Predict the 3D structure of the following.
Amino acid sequence: MKGGITTELLDPEEFLKQVKASPSISDVDLYKQVISDKVEVFEGNPSVKEKIIAIDFGIKSNIIKDLQAKFNKIYLVPFDDNFEANIADLDYDGVFLSNGPGDPRIVKGIDKFIKQFAENNIPLIAICFGHQLIGQAFGLKTIKLPFGHHGGNHPVKYFDNGRVYITAQNHNYAISNESLEANEDWEMTWVNLYDHTVEGMKHKQLPINCIQFHPEASPGPREANEKVFEDFYKTVAKQDK
């Protein structure tokens, strides 16, 4: 259901017409409206040596802070027409794909780079929008949920230790369970206990580890945050040896 808020157009009927005429969320590359127009560099943890590229689709500042705690340096690179040139001379050990607004199914051009990173055995890690983009690049299907996941108090189970974590979420799309189960190269790592949708996955051979929820939002306990970013670091550090 579409909705709108205005302080300028005060005729309800006319405003309703504009809301109804607005494009669908699945027809607009919304992330292009929120990304930076330049490469930014963030210094991180000096006690480690691993450096990463964070591909910006609308990254949240708390994600950058959590990446800084785990990695030596973060190159934040917007995904735009200059992306290939911007990463050409960077020294990095892994690639992070960020969250972002809109429908990941209409993003053009990222599949090529994801496949290139994977072919070169460069670790890939991701949250939410980026998680879906990685899945799509490997033939997994993204679906629009009948009811999106928003707000806090979403319980997700981590299969590695059997624990349940309370998470914050904000997405209308998810990797299809059926496409993940049918693909022999991938395994689910986290599952949503409300509707059993995919909340995380990893590749069985390649160093790829990604999740759907937002650990950086830290809704109360920080256990999910600590587990996710530690897993991300291990994915990159293991390959860097």
Summary: The chain is about 30% helix and 30% strand. The longest strand covers residues 142-158. The mean pLDDT is 95.
